[in-house]
Amino acid sequence: MSIGIVACGALATHISDIVIENALDVVIYPLPPLLHNRPEKIAGEVDALLHEIKDKHSHCAVAYADCGTYGALDSVIATHGVKRLGGNHCYDIFAGTKKIAEIMESDAGTYFLTDFLVKSFHRSVIVELGLDKRPELRDDYFKNYSRVIWLAQQPTDELKALALGAAQEIGLPLQIEHVGYGQLSEQVLALLSN
Q1: What gap in Å lies between CA 70 and CA 127, rounded to an integer?
Q2: Which residues pair with residue 103 across a beta bridge?
């Protein structure tokens, strides 16, 4: 039987690439990436989906880091006896926990972007924060940030232009860190092993 992965929608395409590259029998069940704007809902959504799919697969896994659930997701995965990605958030997975800690130590006012956030910035950030209707609130939301770092997985000229545009929309300078998939491939493959 196949393996079922409940995945963060922001990681689902990357996970699909890993599954295809390794010719794995996996079904990916992505949850909406906008759940990150309401992290208190992530654990409940993962729990409901695991209940729905658990009998369809030889085993299941969860492709989320903690993502702001403050341990609630760990309670869910313990109940289901499954594994999840490591780290506090996908930034840890892509850049490594040590690198993220160093960045935050040097400047706690760092706003991170991934390729997914670069592509969806207007919808995920501007519209969700209501800045499309009330742009004058931008500085209230971002006054404690000093820079944007794009943790680039698969950088292209188009994504670079979008990342620059996103940083400009919130009035911050952009720094680019080429991180690739970081530990994502290794962690996904570890999730799929029994």
Answers
A1: 26
A2: none
On the question of pLDDT at 28 being above 90, the answer is yes
Q: Which amino acid is at 184?
A: L
pTM of the model: 0.91
Task: Pull the structure tokens for residue 8.
Answer: 């963060």
DSSP percent split of the chain into helix, strand, coil, nearest 5: 50, 15, 30
**Residue 160's closest CA among 109, 119, 103, 124?**
119
For residues 15 and 28, the answer to whether their CB atoms sit within 8 Å is: yes
31: part of which helix (H) or strand (E)?
strand 26-31
Q: In 3-state terms, what secondary structure has residue 159?
A: helix
The percent of residues in the chain predicted with pLDDT above 70, rounded, is 99
- Domains of the chain, with CATH numbers? 3-89+182-192 (3.40.50), 97-178 (no CATH)
Taking alpha carbons only, the member of 10, 65, 51 closest to residue 32 is 10
Residue with tokens 């770092």: 149
Residue 174, phi then psi, degrees to nearest 5: -105, 135
